[in-house]
Amino acid sequence: MHPTPRPLITHVIWDMDGTLLDTEPHYLRAGNEMAARYGRVLTEEIRAQMMGRSGLVSARIFVEALGIPLTPEQVIAEENEMLIALFRDCQPMPGARALSRHLHRHGVPQAVATSSSRVRVGHKTVGHADWFATFGAVVTSDDVERLKPAPDIFLRAAEHIGATPASTLVFEDSPLGVEAALAAGMHVVATPEEVYRDRVGTAHLVLTSLEEFVPEAWGLPPFA
Question: Which of 1, 28, 73, 175 suits 203 as a labelling partner, its CA being 20 to 30 A distant?
């Protein structure tokens, strides 16, 4: 069943990890390997607390929740050794590239708002330069003081593309990201991992995949 038509959407903002790019399995692999190295287990609950946050905040949660005998900075350094190579092979999430390119062709301004650092964004997008060039802005954790669940990163992205919150649609996968977009006064479509589906119920629409998204239900150009 299609969602009830919403107020006219004129601008779109995308989360990156788990929404545009399939990077979450890489984070999970690195986290599991590091936890196992110290005889710990990275649970779904702890991972949920880490998702959508900056690298430093996520590392701090990882250290404190699991009792890892490292500093957050050391965790990031060890993670980077594993993640850099993995990021270079990351692929688009199902439906993400087709939808964003469709909106770009029809002149819909779009931006990316990610809790990743600009350095990590560079590693993740190295194989997708042409695609990411279609976004009007890429706002990272380096660009704002407060990260998700604060609304700042979405509001900053909106400024870059001339968007007003009430006419902006956000695509997110994490509970913290959904909370941040709602705090910014924006509409939110969530595409969470199944295990976190019950945590994003406040989103305006929850989908299994972006391939299910119906643009015209939101006043956006329909697929031909």
Answer: 28
54 φ, ψ (degrees, to nearest 5): -65, 165
Cα distance between residue 107 and residue 186, in whole Å: 20
CA distances, 107 to each of 17, 86, 100, 136 (Å): 24, 33, 11, 11
Render each residue's pLDDT in the chain as its tens digit; 224 residues: 344 456 689 999 999 999 999 998 888 888 899 899 999 999 988 988 888 677 788 899 999 999 999 999 999 888 888 888 888 889 999 999 999 999 999 999 999 999 999 999 999 999 999 999 999 999 999 999 999 999 999 999 999 999 999 999 999 999 999 999 999 999 999 999 998 899 999 999 999 999 999 999 999 999 98
Q: Find residue 187's DSSP bridge partners.
A: 169
Specify the DSSP element, H or E, that contains 135. Answer: none
Query: For residues 182 and 43, what is the distance between their CA atoms, to the nearest angstrom?
Result: 27
In terms of Cβ atoms closer than 10 Å to its own Cβ (0-12, 13-18, 19+), residue 16 is buried
Domains defined for the chain, CATH in brackets = 11-21+91-218 (3.40.50.1000), 24-87 (1.10.150.240)
In angstroms, the first-to-last Cα distance of the chain is 20
pTM of the entire predicted model: 0.87
Cis peptide before 149 (omega within 30 of 0): yes
Q: Which residues are catalytic?
A: 15, 17
